[in-house]
Amino acid sequence: MPFQNRVTPLGELIAAPERGLVYGNRGRLHDEHGVIRRQWQVKRWISCRLEFRGRRRPGGPMVPNRYTGLFFLDDATALAAGHRPCAECRNADYRSVLALTGASGADELDERLHTERGRLHESELAGLPDGAFVALDGEPWLILGSALLRWSDGHGSAALSTPSHRRQACASSPQAGAGASRSFTRAGRRRPCGESPRLYDRRGVEGFPFVHYETARFSDLDGMGHVNNAVFSVYVEQARLAWFGRYAADEPMPLKDVILARMEIDFRAQVGYGETVAIGVRPSRVGTKSFEFEFELRVGDRLVAEAKSVLVGYDYASGSSVEVPERWRRRLQSANAPA
After folding, report:
1. What's the total number of domains in the chain?
2. 268-308 confidence digits (pLDDT tens)
3. What is the C-alpha separation between 322 and 339, in angstroms, rounded?
4. Residue 260 belongs to some domain of the structure
5. Model pLDDT for residues 215-269, shown as the tens digit of each residue
6. CB atoms < 10 A from the CB of 89, how many?
7. Residue 143 lies in a domain
8. Quick check: pTM over 0.90?
9. What's the CA angle centered on 51, arms 50 and 55, to 5 degrees?
């Protein structure tokens, strides 16, 4: 079975047998079993040569406690996914991007790109350069001359189309590269702009500094045609894990001494197939042996659910509750949880 380390133009990690023409990383994303546990660890997302000065990496792309080796079909895909050229093995390309974007160095470039990742904007197709990706009807397409090439995981741009009826499309071009879009334009994720109520929408959630996004899959629906109530708990769980991935990125197993004790969900509105759910997450209380999270789930401006979860400090060896570890107390309080 192939590893889940192939990157799409939308930045997603999928399992595919093909290796790709470009290598890269965004930190350690896998656990000791080679299972992807988070989408990113560091802000420095880079793309590299497959071969450089004869270097080899023993153990493959998912060696325990080392960064996750990622693969891209080509450089256009890597740029679209938000990865910039490596300053060592692709120095000329790296310096070209610095010059085109006006960034003073890697730190500034990575910081600016990180604030832009995942955003979409509506743009005229005629104004976008070759090599840019756009989202049409929920799928990534590469612009090449007057044509659009549909991206696929195994064979790249396999289908050719010239949809003359489409004058506008969703594109995501980082403001860091606004002056250099001819060679540095990337796409967002899987929702077209301005077509139906089920839009790809990555706006924030007011009052929540951390927001996670889930897109309703066909398998999430029940016989009534909307997302089943039980699936909301999965969305909340994924959002909570994403929060831990952000604030405990330096720990290989951040949940080793806490356990979920309670979850409450109040349902406010239905969610349909293909809609993007923005899930705001914030710590709400830190006690001696437990702490709480609050969640607000929205589709655009529509409130669809509110939730709360309670976690307790836990010793898995003895099977008993313990005080909340001090490192978690510090992290939670730094994320504005009241003591």
Report:
1. 2
2. 999 998 788 999 999 999 999 999 999 999 998 899 999 99
3. 18
4. yes
5. 888 888 888 889 999 999 999 998 998 888 777 766 666 678 889 999 999 999 9
6. 18
7. no
8. no
9. 125
